[in-house]
Sequence to fold (731 residues):
Amino acid sequence: MENEITVSKAELITEVQKMLAQKAMFGTATCLDLDERFEIIYHFELEQGLKMRHIRVSLAKDDTLPSISNIYMCAALIENEMQEMFDIKISGIALDFKRGMLLAKESPKTPLMKGKE
Amino acid sequence: MARTVIPFGPQHPVFPEPIQLKLECEDERIVGVVPVIGYISRGIEKAAELNPFRNNIFLCERVCGICSFMHALCYCQGIEDMMKVEVPSRARFLRVFWAELSRMHSHLLWLGLLADSFGFESLFMQVWRAREIILDISEMTSGHRIIQSTNVIGGVRRDIDEEMAQKVEEMLAQFKELADRSILPTILNDPTIKERTVGKGILTKEQAELLAAVGPTLRGSGVASDMRMTEYAAYKEIGFEPIVETAGDSYARTLVRVKEIYQSLDIILKALSMMPEGDIAVRVTGRPEGEVVSRVEQPRGELIYYVKGNGTANLERLKIGTPTFANIPSLLVMLPGCELADVPVITLSIDPCIACCER
Amino acid sequence: MNWIARSRAKSPWLLHYDCGSCNGCDIEILACLTPLYDIERFGIVNMGNPKHADILLVTGPANHPNYRVLKNLYEQMPEPKVVVVVGSCGCTGGVFHNCPNILGGIDKVIPVDVYVPGCAAKPEAIIDGVVLALEKLKNGK
Amino acid sequence: MPWMLPTIMKNLFSRPVTRRYPYVKRPPFPEARGKLHFDTEKCNLCGACSRICPANAIIVDKEGRTIKYNPFACIYCGNCVEGCPKKAITMDILYSPPAIQKEEEVITFPPSTK
Fold:
């Protein structure tokens, strides 16, 4: 993808703050399950949506991801969704549904993980 | 003052779909909102990994029945982008035709629901009567009233011939006559509509940008952002200017949508007159590999598809970023400060589509 | 008490519940209420209250988060009652048959009387389905 | 509200727009998508329709020479009509009617002459 940067977990917050300073709008975030680790891609939009910028973070499966919802409040919903659909730990979400946003108690747990057919 | 939490929904007469808003109230005034979603989540993203990638078009169409064409369009554009397919120009014009048709039908549907939410029954009936003309055009050209299902990877499945185009123009003229006579003057002049919407649910430009609102919600707050500016399909040839209102209240969002109905009408007529001759689809062989982000403008706002293929018939991952999911955070800013009786109108003013939102 | 059953079939009241459909069938049910189809000419009224309703119109497949809501609504409706499922996904699961959060057709949760196929079902088909349900209602089930 | 007056007058004296549906049936447009029909002459039971059906509504049994079609799972998309190599599937303009029982349609083919 064009305009893509890969950052480490520690640099994520500063990088997102840079996007805020450039008045970028938050698009959405995608989580990928790559068997031995997770990959999270944050999609940002610049210049009123004409340009896109992607920030890719790689994360070990037992690691904790810092939430960006304290910078971009609107990321809270998508982070909740990632937390539910994947077995990923995200710390400090502004509005935490505790894995009860989309799935019910009886639903299959973390359905988007690989090998869960 | 004592605070009470009032559950609004999940089954509420103004929404056809279940969504709950937990409203924290001080007397009649709202001070806090917590949205509760998830009543109709299906897990389409997982099913998309299990299906062959060509069948996913039909699954994506059923993420949301109202804007089904845009979902399929976005998915097909993503796959075409990944497989480096050049879509014939007639197909691109036909895509614009159906996309704008479904935008018109979606906005009219929403306008009817809004009128119903503040008890303007006759406007609701008039709007839905006009909408049936659009649905007839859709059935005539694509075979179904709401789920057009005409997209395939590499083009479209159905063609519009000369005779049909003429009929479409006649029906659109009929629609325009009806809209000019009853819908537009009522929206622009009626004091009851203004009473219920002007100054209600204000979202400033800064808030809208920070909360990543999309679509008419964003444009009603004065941000000229529309994915059609990225010139996908045939918008480059047809030309496009976004419609912007600056007030940021429910009335501004209503005006944006009403003007977009007329704009879509113009785009459809332009697309029909400019449509080049040629094939409507190219044969696509092979398997998708790589990753791509595809965006289109839905009636409710920007739709983002992230598609990752791994060279097999099944996709590795399909992520659907829908406009209602992006617009719900702005509700949390719009609602506090308003009165309980205004909640239905303000909630409807973002045009919530829960089926999209929860997938 | 025959005349009660007869008059019930003359003016059935509907309750519509969206169980996770794509919205297509929901807006077609709404379209039935509007001038072109106008099911109110048969005395059919769309109700928000399950205790007032005779016919439960369900769209979409049953899923884990809301099958209990559906069961609740069904149990609250007074006898005799009929259930009409609108849309292919509500009948069998349809295109959502392999979604993880889906239980399947509505008949896995509550007994269903009439199935209306179609994706999305047309207003004509919905009217036909309700008329078929009225036959059942008239016979007191 | 003077701008409403023409609309009110026009609607008062014009015919109702309501389609008197069960009594007067308006036929769907000729392009409408509806129920599937299998041509037993053309079909060679290859099973392509079953593989590309997004809703698993068609089950082809090659040994038993039958096709099971479930109109209550079919989403009427028309993918099979276009994907059939023998062009043996056609679409009606009407959906299958509402029913009390979910009944699958079983299309039996005459035994192979080859």
